[in-house]
Amino acid sequence: MKIAIAQLNPTIGNLTENGQNILDAANQATAEGAQLLLTPELSLCGYPPRDHLLNSSFIKQMAQELETLAQKLPPQLTVLVGVATPNPDAAEKGEKPLHNSIALIENGEVVNYFHKRLLPTYDVFDEVRYFEPGKESNCFVINVQQADENLVPVTIGVTICEDLWNDENFWGKRNYQHNPLDDLALRGVDMIVNLSASPYSVGKQKLRESMLGYSASHYGLPIIYTNQVGANDDLIFDGASITLNRTGELVSRAQPFQKDLMIADFSPTEQDFQETTIAPSPDNENEEMWQALVLGVQDYARKCGFQKVVIGLSGGIDSSLVAAIAQSALGGDNVLSVLMPSPYSSSGSIADAEALVSNLGIHSATLPIEPAMNAYDEILEPLFSGTEFGVTEENLQSRIRGNLLMAIANKFNYLLLSTGNKSEMAVGYCTLYGDMNGGLAVISDVPKTRVYSLCRWLNQEQEIIPENVINKAPSAELRPDQKDEDSLPSYDILDQILHRFIHEHQGLDEIVAAGFSEEVVKNVTNLVRKAEFKRRQAPPGLKVTDRAFGTGWRMPIASRIKG
Amino acid sequence: MKIAIAQLNPTIGNLTENGQNILDAANQATAEGAQLLLTPELSLCGYPPRDHLLNSSFIKQMAQELETLAQKLPPQLTVLVGVATPNPDAAEKGEKPLHNSIALIENGEVVNYFHKRLLPTYDVFDEVRYFEPGKESNCFVINVQQADENLVPVTIGVTICEDLWNDENFWGKRNYQHNPLDDLALRGVDMIVNLSASPYSVGKQKLRESMLGYSASHYGLPIIYTNQVGANDDLIFDGASITLNRTGELVSRAQPFQKDLMIADFSPTEQDFQETTIAPSPDNENEEMWQALVLGVQDYARKCGFQKVVIGLSGGIDSSLVAAIAQSALGGDNVLSVLMPSPYSSSGSIADAEALVSNLGIHSATLPIEPAMNAYDEILEPLFSGTEFGVTEENLQSRIRGNLLMAIANKFNYLLLSTGNKSEMAVGYCTLYGDMNGGLAVISDVPKTRVYSLCRWLNQEQEIIPENVINKAPSAELRPDQKDEDSLPSYDILDQILHRFIHEHQGLDEIVAAGFSEEVVKNVTNLVRKAEFKRRQAPPGLKVTDRAFGTGWRMPIASRIKG
Predict the structure, then answer these.
(1) What is the pLDDT of residues A159-193, one digit of tens each?
(2) Full-prediction pTM beyond 0.95?
(3) Which of the following CATH numbers is that of domain B287-477+532-536: 3.40.1780.10, 3.40.50.620, 3.40.190.10, 3.20.20.30?
(4) Pick from A48, A51, A554: CB nearest B50
(5) Which CATH architecture group holds A287-484+531-536?
(6) What is the ipTM of this complex?
């Protein structure tokens, strides 16, 4: 039996276009002889639809679109489509109004709905906000014609994303009360399919393959894992759908970070898949993260309707990396970089930025900001006379640049990309309404030490980021001879402390016990807390780690906390 | 039996200060002869603690602080304190790691914990993100000495906030599977206490009193409702704790919008409260909202460590209202208003702003922005020459003002208050990094029509907002003779459409069916969707309606949705 795995890239809420993409995949699947088509979780509305789900007319439109789609699908193809469906028991039983469902479509009709049982409500996930969990295990039967014309029934267990993330034996603990795998194994299914929209973070695909391989072999059941691909705001979905035999062996993998349609061939007699193509995974974490970021920029621009982006280039490593990502995502012709030197800019920085522009083949403009600095000094003179040059004046330079970039973005309908890294965003070493300006914060979840390793990786074959950009000491160049490390610990130390504090939720004592100076740790954790008001107003940032600032980081601002 | 109801105003995470406030309340309660002290939900850490709860060292500190506090409390006083506690079953049963609990303290020791059973996970609430619901109904017994020296046991049912919000008979539907009131009634308790942190929205107190009165009389049980007071970021807690007799009659009410300690006197023989003081509720919705906004500004400034605020005054009604709120919250001496006229500013606007400054007795400075406008024109000339004056140039004026205000805020450590109203924020009639700048958006949940009614209410006894500010046609004054209604429907129509779309979740068809022009409705809903990227970067805004932009509004940006 041939099963098509459609790794789709939906736009949130665009039911017509997403439906058309499912139909296209169905036609292709049929042409390739498939009997069953799998699509990702909520494939009709895209994941995550968030508060669009509170709009009842949106839920009605989704039901209509599903019906229209069902009628257009090839009748001989069984199709699983992800949709949000009303929960008829909600008012009577005091339940949530919707289910996160999979519609089973046969012969142009929806013949069953399967409801997601484990609803992630942590990090970026808010599923209990909208959905009631399904209470039953989900499966259906497909009759497969054998060479001898006999029909063999194959029972397929249906799970939705998180439903497979509670294998107690793999995790060493339970994450939810139920384990849908246990129930399906008891029902004697022949295979498990999983319809997912699992956001990328570094190393996630390895974790998935290891976890699913464990479960397949533990239950002795082959698994098909179908993942969404593409970026929706801050979340990047990496695709890389896979099939695993009942021994846990990986037999096929779809393209990572690309739309794809993969055919798996299941033998009902052998109860396993025939080996097909295994698309290569990225070689290393740098390559993986690079691909994620490129897709993130590409999809945010496309789905928001922008063809071109504008970026402020300082000659530093962060803006250089963002420019390289943008060039790879959209082509050099669609990237405008703007150099905005001040009297504090070093000639080296300008030369470095120009070298990068030339390496990338992107457009550039140079707009010296001194006239605006003088104008603000003049305007503020009545209030500021007698005060010393300080952070206020540094911020003003950053904000003048932010204004110029927004003026260009507004005038020519460009998307402004902001260039701050995660280490800066963590400790607030960035200017609100200045260098934080932008529609998308491309590397705001990339720690500074990773920015360096990404640039070195990128330069492996030829110099893309000028070597001088990588080798010079980082500086904001907002006052003479300023260096980042005048105000902050070295990025190597800083990133280790931040990782413990932000990702591992460690307290002061634990971090100090790991060998860091108490004074430094206290300073860093205080800076992180004090910068909350800045992060609250940051643009969405592409999530590439397991704990990013943004939708999955919900911190109070007016707060006093020790340690 | 005297019961003290401590309506406390905690700062999120400040365990030491919050603990001290509970201790002070306990000492006062003892001095007034109380036998039992009630404090709000999560009174030790403040509500909502949000992702601080993911930090295990914070949970440990809370447990230590609770123990320290218990030892200091007057031994003869029984005290209920709100704390987050670890769920020991989490890993084994696949449950959430914490409970939202009430500690029962007697004789210097925690003798029991009660866990919240209904966990709100909608709007601004994320409780399932952190907490496992309690599975049992909660009660304890206090022995009350009668005049004849006999001890009479009084059984007190304990509920936490949402636990009382599922009376199916009142709502006409269930919101959760269980109703803790049913269980407590079956256990034959003598009284229900509710420990709450229930955020304000307009009309909420009336709803609470009506709902609790209904439940008290339905179950024939007296109820004490103890609410948190004070603002934490976007959420304002209005206090107004109440006691209700078993007929549902209101017998006492604490001060709304103020810290308070109220004594209720319960007669075990009559099974009801003796009547005490009923603090007056605000006369009308305008007064209520005004008090909420004043408290919101006061607490955000205080809890973030600011004494003074700065506001850009345009001579328009929004900034005038915000200045009046700030003056009431912090005193005229702590408010700096800045007039930043451009060549497009009318002399009337400047005069209006000056009249307001004089009415309020606040500080002011005037900084004409033309030099900065010219500087930007000069800098951008190479890119912009030949293009027409348009939205870009309008935004630049707004951003120059935003930069000047931030420079003043940075230089003198003032909190910048932004002045945009909800109608503007909804349709994007505001400039990101311009007039949206600020640490707190004071009226971003106040629709424009309500801005007018608040100003008229404020002027009832004497002119505070200059009449001309109220009567003139609203204008951004970013180009000659500009009026808001050139770009938008009249605010009266706009606010009705917005209410249906944002609050009632109505679709295009429903709004048109209510009598609005399809073209206008389509235009408005499109504007709302297109402005999502601006709102994502807005400062926290004080929530005063049942659906505010901000933490309770979770919309995708890169999204295409019809209708």
Answers:
(1) 999 999 999 999 999 999 999 999 999 999 999 99
(2) yes
(3) 3.40.50.620
(4) A554
(5) 3-Layer(aba) Sandwich (3.40)
(6) 0.96
